[in-house]
Write a structure and sequence with these properties.
The chain is mainly α. It has helices spanning 3-23, 32-44, 52-59, 63-75, 97-118, 123-141, and strands at residues 79-83, 91-95. A hairpin with a 7-residue loop joins strand 1 and strand 2.
Length: 142
Amino acid sequence: MDEKKLMEQYDKMNRKMQRHFAGYFSDSQLTCIQGIVLHYIIVENERRDIFPKDLEEFLGIKGSSVTSLINNLEQGGYLRRESLESDGRYKKLVLTEKTKEIQEDIVRRVYDYMHSMFVGIPEEHLKIFESVIRQMAKNADK
Protein backbone atom coordinates (compact mmCIF):
# COMPACT_ATOMS: atom_id res chain seq x y z
CA MET A 1 0.00 0.00 0.00
CA ASP A 2 1.25 3.46 -0.89
CA GLU A 3 0.60 5.48 2.29
CA LYS A 4 1.70 8.72 0.61
CA LYS A 5 -0.91 8.37 -2.15
CA LEU A 6 -3.55 7.34 0.37
CA MET A 7 -2.88 10.44 2.50
CA GLU A 8 -2.97 12.64 -0.61
CA GLN A 9 -6.37 11.15 -1.50
CA TYR A 10 -7.57 11.67 2.06
CA ASP A 11 -6.43 15.32 2.07
CA LYS A 12 -8.06 15.92 -1.30
CA MET A 13 -11.32 14.32 -0.11
CA ASN A 14 -11.24 16.39 3.08
CA ARG A 15 -10.96 19.65 1.13
CA LYS A 16 -13.68 18.50 -1.27
CA MET A 17 -15.98 17.65 1.66
CA GLN A 18 -15.39 21.09 3.18
CA ARG A 19 -16.32 22.79 -0.10
CA HIS A 20 -19.36 20.50 -0.44
CA PHE A 21 -20.49 21.32 3.10
CA ALA A 22 -19.98 25.06 2.52
CA GLY A 23 -22.41 24.76 -0.37
CA TYR A 24 -25.18 23.80 2.05
CA PHE A 25 -24.85 27.25 3.64
CA SER A 26 -24.07 29.29 0.51
CA ASP A 27 -27.54 30.86 0.48
CA SER A 28 -27.59 31.38 4.24
CA GLN A 29 -26.49 34.28 6.42
CA LEU A 30 -24.39 31.73 8.32
CA THR A 31 -21.04 30.30 7.31
CA CYS A 32 -20.81 26.52 7.34
CA ILE A 33 -18.68 26.59 10.52
CA GLN A 34 -21.25 28.81 12.23
CA GLY A 35 -23.93 26.39 11.06
CA ILE A 36 -22.16 23.36 12.49
CA VAL A 37 -21.52 25.16 15.79
CA LEU A 38 -25.17 26.18 16.12
CA HIS A 39 -26.26 22.69 15.09
CA TYR A 40 -24.07 21.19 17.82
CA ILE A 41 -25.52 23.55 20.43
CA ILE A 42 -29.09 22.90 19.22
CA VAL A 43 -28.68 19.12 19.48
CA GLU A 44 -26.64 19.02 22.69
CA ASN A 45 -28.77 21.63 24.50
CA GLU A 46 -31.54 19.06 24.67
CA ARG A 47 -29.41 17.11 27.16
CA ARG A 48 -27.13 19.62 28.88
CA ASP A 49 -25.67 23.10 29.02
CA ILE A 50 -22.95 23.84 26.46
CA PHE A 51 -19.75 25.75 27.25
CA PRO A 52 -16.90 27.06 25.09
CA LYS A 53 -14.74 24.14 26.25
CA ASP A 54 -17.30 21.75 24.70
CA LEU A 55 -16.85 23.50 21.34
CA GLU A 56 -13.06 23.21 21.65
CA GLU A 57 -13.41 19.45 22.05
CA PHE A 58 -16.09 19.05 19.39
CA LEU A 59 -14.24 21.07 16.75
CA GLY A 60 -10.74 20.08 17.82
CA ILE A 61 -9.55 23.69 17.81
CA LYS A 62 -7.90 26.03 20.29
CA GLY A 63 -9.75 28.20 22.77
CA SER A 64 -8.82 31.43 20.98
CA SER A 65 -10.44 30.19 17.77
CA VAL A 66 -13.56 29.14 19.67
CA THR A 67 -13.70 32.56 21.33
CA SER A 68 -13.56 34.21 17.91
CA LEU A 69 -16.38 31.97 16.61
CA ILE A 70 -18.51 32.68 19.68
CA ASN A 71 -17.84 36.43 19.40
CA ASN A 72 -18.97 36.43 15.76
CA LEU A 73 -22.12 34.43 16.56
CA GLU A 74 -22.85 36.71 19.50
CA GLN A 75 -22.36 39.84 17.39
CA GLY A 76 -24.67 38.34 14.76
CA GLY A 77 -27.33 37.83 17.42
CA TYR A 78 -27.33 34.02 17.22
CA LEU A 79 -26.22 33.24 20.77
CA ARG A 80 -25.23 34.79 24.04
CA ARG A 81 -23.07 33.83 27.00
CA GLU A 82 -24.74 33.52 30.38
CA SER A 83 -22.99 33.12 33.71
CA LEU A 84 -23.96 30.15 35.81
CA GLU A 85 -25.71 31.05 39.03
CA SER A 86 -23.59 28.48 40.87
CA ASP A 87 -20.29 29.82 39.48
CA GLY A 88 -20.11 33.10 37.58
CA ARG A 89 -16.76 32.18 36.02
CA TYR A 90 -18.44 29.64 33.74
CA LYS A 91 -20.35 30.99 30.76
CA LYS A 92 -22.86 28.70 29.11
CA LEU A 93 -23.82 29.28 25.50
CA VAL A 94 -27.49 30.10 25.03
CA LEU A 95 -29.32 30.28 21.71
CA THR A 96 -31.24 33.47 20.97
CA GLU A 97 -34.72 33.78 19.51
CA LYS A 98 -33.10 34.60 16.18
CA THR A 99 -31.46 31.16 16.15
CA LYS A 100 -34.55 29.40 17.43
CA GLU A 101 -36.46 30.84 14.47
CA ILE A 102 -34.02 29.23 12.00
CA GLN A 103 -33.22 26.15 14.07
CA GLU A 104 -35.12 23.72 11.82
CA ASP A 105 -33.35 25.11 8.75
CA ILE A 106 -29.92 24.66 10.36
CA VAL A 107 -30.70 21.09 11.41
CA ARG A 108 -32.03 20.27 7.92
CA ARG A 109 -28.96 21.69 6.16
CA VAL A 110 -26.54 19.73 8.34
CA TYR A 111 -28.60 16.53 8.07
CA ASP A 112 -28.85 16.87 4.29
CA TYR A 113 -25.09 17.30 4.04
CA MET A 114 -24.33 14.31 6.27
CA HIS A 115 -26.84 12.14 4.42
CA SER A 116 -25.40 13.17 1.04
CA MET A 117 -21.94 11.97 2.03
CA PHE A 118 -23.07 8.39 2.68
CA VAL A 119 -25.47 7.81 -0.21
CA GLY A 120 -24.69 4.55 -1.99
CA ILE A 121 -22.24 3.23 0.60
CA PRO A 122 -23.19 -0.20 2.00
CA GLU A 123 -23.54 -0.51 5.78
CA GLU A 124 -20.61 -2.94 6.05
CA HIS A 125 -18.32 -0.41 4.35
CA LEU A 126 -19.46 2.30 6.74
CA LYS A 127 -18.59 0.07 9.70
CA ILE A 128 -15.09 -0.44 8.29
CA PHE A 129 -14.79 3.30 7.64
CA GLU A 130 -15.80 4.03 11.23
CA SER A 131 -13.17 1.62 12.52
CA VAL A 132 -10.49 3.17 10.31
CA ILE A 133 -11.21 6.77 11.31
CA ARG A 134 -11.32 5.83 15.01
CA GLN A 135 -7.87 4.24 14.71
CA MET A 136 -6.52 7.21 12.75
CA ALA A 137 -7.81 9.54 15.49
CA LYS A 138 -6.04 7.43 18.12
CA ASN A 139 -2.85 7.51 16.07
CA ALA A 140 -3.08 11.30 15.78
CA ASP A 141 -3.38 11.59 19.57
CA LYS A 142 -0.09 9.75 20.19
